[in-house]
Amino acid sequence: MRVAIPHNLDPDEVRHRLKTKSHKMADMMPGGQAQVDTDWPTEDRMNMRVRAMGQQVAGHIEIEQEQLIFDIDLPAALSFVEPMIAGAIQKQGQKLLR
C-alpha cells in the first residue's frame, strides 16, 4: 500500500520533523495499542515496523522533494482495513510534518 502526502518543506526540515516526532507514531495508530520501531538506512528513507493487535507490519517512508511516500507491506489478512489505514496515514502524516 502506498500513500503520498504532499509537502512544501525543505527536505532537511522534513527529515528533522520525522526524526523528532517518530516516537509519536504509535500514538497515531488506530486503537492506540501499537509499538513502532524506526531506523534510517539512508537520509531520505525511514524504515518502520509496527506491532499491534497481534500483527506486525513493515514499511518505510521515502522523503521526496514535494511529497512523503508511505509504503506499507500490508498482509493479505489485513487488506480489509486498508482504506482505514490509508486514511489514518494521510491524516496523521500531515501532523508529523507540522
TrEMBL record:
Pfam families from the UniProt entry: PHA_gran_rgn
Domain of life: Bacteria
InterPro entries according to UniProt: PHA_gran_rgn (IPR013433)
Name of protein: Polyhydroxyalkanoic acid synthase
Organism per entry: Qipengyuania oceanensis
